[in-house]
Amino acid sequence: MKALRRALALVLALCCLGFLPALAADEDAAAESDCPHLGWQNGVCVACGAVCPHAEHDYDSCVCFVCGMTVGHSYLTSRCPMCGRTPAFTDSLVPSAFFRRPDAPGTVQTVEYTTHDYVGERRGAGTLTYRKRMLVYLPRGYDPAQPYNVLVLLHGMGGGETYWLGKPQLYAAYGTEYYVSTAQMLDNMLAAGMCRDMIVVTPTFYRDSGNLSLYDRVPDEEQFVRELREDILPFIVQNYATYAADGSAEAISAARDHFAYTGLSMGSIYAYNSVMPLCLDLFAWFGCFSGSDCYVDLTVDALRSEANAPYPIRYFYNSIGTRDSMAVLHRENFIAITDRVAGLTDTENAWFTLVADAGHEYGAWIVGLYNFLQVVFMM
């Protein structure tokens, strides 16, 4: 009888301490492990419901060795944990094959959205709205029934919303100069499985891209960041298939792993100076090409602030030409951020490329974009 009482007491104690549910869970796990997993559908065992961990996949085809599902590379540490593959970064030229006419091209649309004169309103000038244009790239086979990642791609001084996607750019490479299409490079990289399907958006920081003389950096930078948050991203979410449930800042923030920002020259400076500090809740991936002029201590303080603590940067890619006059400063500011902001590690989820024999030109920027496209959204 005493032995029975001791046994009952032990059971009661285990229940109070919560050990028995854990033991039951272990038994369930053991029973689940007994399943031979003879059939899989979309990474789930059809017999027991177990989810495949995708521990290993084929280096080239990305087919999981266990369930047979195609699982893309993950480059959050610049090396895929499933196969050991690293991105095919270049520090010189984009392979010419990526500028050939694709078999299945995507589409580029010109759209208009309504924005406010946010700076004027803040200064008490009253409410003023006006229309602006941006270009939107949709990948081949775009299906409005499935969600897509979103990459915002900004131009530099003297450019506009058409710079990246609206017209060919002169590329000095392979011993000659010729015009190439950024959209065709996107098409070919997608076809080769080198990047995730994505919508690419190219807005402009100019209030009027037909009159560049109206630009005033300080107020126009403030204006663009407000547009980005309150007009551009909501317009894209409301009119295209994305991972955000709706166009609110809260919904976009909940899906921030599927939103990225990148830019060249002044567009890159905007990333350092305002987009990362003020929009980290909306974007998790950043690409910066040939520009980092900012008060770097203020940028670091903003990234380390309590308000931005819940929003880690997934990948921070930077590049600049070796002949660019801003190369030293850009590298110094990159190091300042990666050294002082928690969660960023150089050569893992942060990377800096010096593009050989390139100045402040398209030849440097297209290399940066080619490299960044290989890691963005790769998780």
The number of distinct β-strands equals 12
**Biggest β-sheet, characterized?**
8 strands, mixed
Segments where pLDDT lies below 50 for 5+ residues? 1-31
| CATH topology annotation of the largest domain | Rossmann fold
* Span of the ends, CA to CA: 59 Å
Categorize the overall geometry.
Answer: globular
CATH class of the largest domain: Alpha Beta
Short description:
This protein is of the alpha/beta class. The chain folds into two domains: 2-34, no CATH class; 96-373, 3-Layer(aba) Sandwich (Rossmann fold). It contains ten helices and twelve strands.
Which keywords apply here?
379 residues, alpha/beta, Rossmann fold, 2 domains, two-stranded antiparallel sheet, 12 strands, 18% strand
Explain this structure to me?
This protein is α/β, with parallel strands linked by helices and 379 residues long. It has two domains: 2-34, no CATH class; 96-373, Rossmann fold, CATH 3.40.50.1820. It is 32% helix and 18% strand. The chain has helices at residues 2-17, 19-33, 118-122, 182-191, 217-239, 249-254, 266-279, 296-303, 327-340, 362-373; strands spanning 40-41, 44-45, 107-116, 129-138, 149-154, 169-173, 176-180, 198-202, 259-264, 285-289, 315-321, 350-355. The strands form three sheets. Strands 3-4-8-5-9-10-11-12 form an eight-stranded mixed sheet, with helices on both faces. α8 (296-303) links the parallel β10 (285-289) and β11 (315-321). α7 runs parallel beside α8 (296-303). It is globular, with a radius of gyration of 25 Å. It starts with a helix and ends in a 6-residue tail after the last helix. The model is unreliable at 1-31 (pLDDT under 50).
